[in-house]
Design goal:
Length: about 140
Amino acid sequence: MPVTDPLLSAAKDNHHDAVDMANTWSHSDVGQLGGNEMPGNCMTMSGQRLLERARENVFFTDLNACNEFRNGDELAGSIAVDTLLIVGAQDKMTVAVSAHKVTANIPGSRVVNFSPCGHVMLSEQPNAVLDALSNIV
């Protein structure tokens, strides 16, 4: 799960640019313009405030773990339980094409695609996420 060098570098330096990049790339165009199911709440500002509250180096540690992750396809093939993958069609952090490659390697997996939706699907599509999780059995 590669992380772009500018984002990783900014996070390592605890620079606010990391928050800005991740927050921008984590929302679909619709999510950046508004469209929150809870009137008066701004998805991008909520995401920004959450990332700003993280302790120093936590965001970098998370992003670096993603960047250093290896053998995902092989590990996905070893999953032996029913698996639900929820994919945001406009996700720029984990693009849908990459997510679908993972699902192809998980035997018996089921995929739910949300559009418009980016990486922060719990902000952009909270009810759809709940519905998808409620229909697991």
